[in-house]
Prior knowledge:
- The chain is mostly beta strands.
- It has no helices and 4 strands.
- It has a 4-stranded mixed beta sheet with strand order 3-2-1-4, with no helix packed on it.
- The mean pLDDT is 87.
Amino acid sequence: CRAGSKTLWCFGDDEAQLEEYAWYAENSGRQTHPVAQKKPNAYGLYDMHGNLWELCWDWKETYPSNSVTDPVGPRHGSYRIERGGSWDTCASVCRSTLRHFTSPGDLTSTAGFRVCGVYPKSQVIDK
């Protein structure tokens, strides 16, 4: 999601720019949207902010007090991490560092998972 940045969102800290990158409560019309309708992050990944919460491989765990890079959490747990916000969340919830959690069996219309491949927008297939 961060694509090498250290800012609130992949594009910087200016919330006014989020509309160019994300479907969220302010612009989504309360629904999901096809992938790649907004700008990608610096790594070419679309919809890393908003549209759907991304279910992650990580199980919920409190971060250690020291600085860590790409923590993966415990091997087992009760709750999976979700990131990125969704079509029904406010801008601050869509920021790069926010973690949310959910029980794997409690999936909703606001969560999904990412099958990732990086393609130019002209090659994205929307079905």
